[in-house]
Amino acid sequence: MRTRLVLVTSTALVLCVASSALSQNWTEIVSQEERFTVTFPAQPTITDAAWFSQFGAVLPSRVYSTTKGQSRYSVTVVDYNPVERLLVERSQACPPGANTCQGIADWGVGYWKTDIRGALLYAVSKFVERDAKVTTLTWNGIALVQGVEMRLTNNADQSRTFASIYMHENRLVIVEATVPRGDPPPVAFNESLNWLDEQGRPVRYQTTYVNIPDVPKPPARGAPAPPPAAR
């Protein structure tokens, strides 16, 4: 049985209970605002937080987290949509002639495009800085949204952390589970992540989705393919 937890606004939650034994159920988070769904092994708490980007923008984030036994599960969603405004505003105070305040289309004006381009790698670097050994670092995709998968063995207690990191609609999504040494990988949790379109419907793209400024979003499956570019 599952519990379905639907996030309809940033402040209002609707909880539809499929069974009274919540502790035995999986809980599905459906965030229309953040365009994703994910299933937790227990009902998560939801906390607002701040994320400091690579180039110093303070971005809003939301952390969904829970525990089950000795295992910990979380999904962190960072909204990169304000980064252009924040870094362009900051660039107005930089010294004249500095790269950050030049209107260079590809990388100037506060480096906001570079901040978005590097968000995945920046999130990876945060895991690398931990007191842990990285055992796996691979490319991955969920519903053709480009991402990265990591596995780490934590030095303190030899527990293992499984992380999946993606960018979708300018939102950095970090799915992380840590389980005790010897426990099986939390595949059901990490692979439950999926995406929603503007209307809150499940979406899978026709080609690989890469969240980079100036790169068009591919059409969803079932949508007409875009016309070929003129030569």
What's the short story on this structure?
The protein contains 4 helices and 13 strands. It has 231 residues and is mostly beta strands.
Query: What is the ordering of alpha helices and beta strands?
Result: EEEEEEEHHHEEEEHEE
What's the end-to-end separation, in Å? 54 Å
Could you say what the CATH architecture of the domain at 43-187 is? 3-Layer(aba) Sandwich
What is the number of beta strands? 13
- Shape assignment: globular
Question: What's the rounded overall pLDDT mean?
Answer: 88
Tell me the layout of helices and strands.
Layout: E1 2-7, E2 13-16, E3 26-31, E4 36-40, E5 45-52, E6 58-68, E7 71-79, H1 83-91, H2 112-117, H3 119-128, E8 132-142, E9 145-154, E10 160-168, E11 171-179, H4 187-190, E12 194-196, E13 202-203
Parallel strand pairs: 1-3
Antiparallel strand pairs: 1-2, 3-4, 4-12, 5-6, 6-7, 7-11, 8-9, 9-10, 10-11, 12-13
